[in-house]
Specification:
Layout (H helix, E strand, L loop, with lengths): L1 H43 L7 H5 L7 H18 L3 H5 L9 H63 L1
Helix pairs in contact: 1-5, 3-5
């Protein structure tokens, strides 16, 4: 019985270490992807929804909140051209030479880019939060494993004295 308890303690310690390592990996990867998206968005230099003075100082859409605000603005303008894509075409095929249809398609593309960024930033936030949870769990499991291991050592020493 004592041997099984020792194996359990070692197992719990190992799971704690694995949880710590996975948590650190999740946080590093989540932050790396968030930084990548932020840098990619800065390279595009989108200033929709950014105040004119901030845009002059080099402030661009590069966060989830700014991307959502810009996406909403593009959607509003796109719907000014036509309420839906079906309404735009009116049963006819897409005509890339029609400036209205081309503007609508470009607006739809930019809108999708911005909302994809919102989803991407949300996903990186979830990954980072999961990593934090894994670290907390790893610390708790590591502490539990250490206490169990200490108790089994004391029990083994007590058994050998008797």
């Amino acid at each position: 019985m004592l041997r099984k308890s020792r194996y359990l303690a070692i197992g719990v310690l190992l799971v704690g270490v694995v949880s710590l390592a996975m948590g650190i990996t999740f946080i590093v990867q989540g932050q790396a992807k968030a930084n990548f998206m932020r840098d990619a968005m800065r390279q595009e230099q989108i200033t929709l929804g950014v105040e004119e003075g901030e845009a002059a100082r080099g402030e661009f859409v590069d966060t989830a909140a700014e991307a959502e605000q810009a996406g909403d603005l593009v959607r509003e303008h796109r719907r000014g051209i036509a309420p839906t894509y079906g309404d735009l075409l009116g049963g006819e095929p897409f005509d890339p030479t029609d400036p209205g249809q081309l503007s609508y398609a470009q607006a739809l593309n930019l809108e999708n880019y911005l909302y994809l960024a919102v989803a991407g930033f949300g996903l990186t936030t979830v990954v980072i939060a999961s990593g934090v949870f894994m670290i907390i769990t790893g610390i708790a499991l590591g502490g539990t494993g250490a206490v169990l291991f200490g108790l089994t050592r004391r029990a083994a020493q007590g058994a050998s004295i008797s």
